[in-house]
Amino acid sequence: MAEADPARAPEAANATPLAAAKPRRQWLRWGLMLIVPLALGLAGWFYWQSLQGKVSTDNAYIKQDMISVSAEVGGPIAEVLVKDGDDVAAGQLLFRIDPEPFRLQIAEANAAIAGAQVNVIALKNDAGLTGTDIAAARSDVGFAEARFERVKALREKGFSTKADLEAAEQAVIQARERVRQAEDRQREARARLASGPAVPGVNPEVAAAEARRANALLSLRRTEVRAPAAGRIAQADRLQTGQQAVPNLPVLTLVRAGSTYVEANFKETDLADMAVGQRAEVRFDAYPDVVLKGRVASIGAGTGAEFSVLPAQNATGNWVKVTQRVPVRIALEGQSPRRLIAGLSTEVTVFTGDAKPKR
User: Fold this and answer.
1) Which of 6, 186, 217, 338 has the smallest number of CB atoms closer than 10 Å to its CB?
2) Per-residue 3-state assignment (H helix, E strand, C coil) for 121-133
3) pLDDT of residue 1
């Protein structure tokens, strides 16, 4: 038997490990080709599962009720007690308008009331109302009628002239006319003292003067402009001492306290499972560490485009379908650790798996 070639012995020894390493590399390659797609598929499946039962949007903003505060009377601003950023309570004095013109109006109205009251007293004491003139006129009638009868008797006996008889008759007519005039004056005086059904028991002139005084008092009270609700002052740059206040022209804005909510504009395709009362989660771009809980308070009655100043008109041949967005109001629960400012950008997630929409 021939002896083995010593030169071929090392090659035979190296061939065995190489042959064993080649199958291992092939299995590793096939394993990676199978495991990587499987891992990506599982990761995608878990991510898809994590998105089920909730919808999100970053087209959402903090909203707060805002009240435009204006003066109800005109005049120069005499005193300013607030500035931008101040927190105020309901009823707190914000600024004051010069009250002097309205105090003068009150004094003028008081004078008018006094004058009307004097006229009433004078009418009550007038002779025409008391009936003195009527009594005197009726007495003159009686005297004239008696004189007429005497002259008539003398005329029948031939002791008087026709002219005396006619004069006595004319005196009777004039006396009766004075009685009628006195009665007319009495009715007129009573009418001046009468009160209508609108203000029973009060003379109309007195009532008119009292109404002018009440209006002046109201205007005087309105020179003090107070906060209609608790909140925070904004846009008070037009509120300057000495500036002329124009009635019903806003001079500052009051952001009402406790009125913060989120208006989230969701795509119409996200509304299928959304319902009022579902849980929501709100994150803030300004405060990355703040996460607030909330609830769906209402779903808008129309899309944002429908309520815009110039609604889209799609009745043309160039129509392109655009996914519409519907405003959804999110009521926040609990207190925020940071001050919430109107207009801040937020990201809202609504958990639609909590409840099915009401049909």
Assistant:
1) 6
2) HHHHCCHHHHCHH
3) 40
Q: How far apart are CA 27 and CA 288, in angstroms?
A: 47
Output the CA–CA distances (angstroms, integers) from residue 196 to 119, 184, 191, 193, in the order listed.
17, 20, 10, 10
Do 89 and 210 contact (CB within 8 A), yes or no? no
Q: Which CATH architecture has domain 67-98+222-252?
A: Beta Barrel (2.40)
- 233 with 215: CB under 8 angstroms? no
Classify 55-65+258-310+321-350 by CATH class: mainly beta
CA distances from 100 to 135, 151, 209, 345 (A): 53, 74, 20, 48
Are 247 and 74 within 8 A, CB to CB? yes
Q: Give the CA dihedral 115, 121, 122, 125, nearest 10 degrees.
A: 180
Closest CA to 285 of 55, 51, 58: 58
**How do 250-256 and 261-267 pair as beta strands?**
unpaired
The answer to whether the beta carbons of residues 137 and 175 sit under 8 Å apart is yes
What averages of pLDDT result for each successive group of 10 residues across the chain (359 residues)? 49 52 66 71 60 83 93 93 93 95 94 86 66 76 84 80 83 84 74 62 81 94 95 89 91 90 93 91 94 93 76 66 89 90 93 66
> By C-alpha distance, which of 224, 140, 233 is closest to 148?
140
Q: Of 335, 327, 347, which Cα lies nearest the Cα of 258?
A: 335
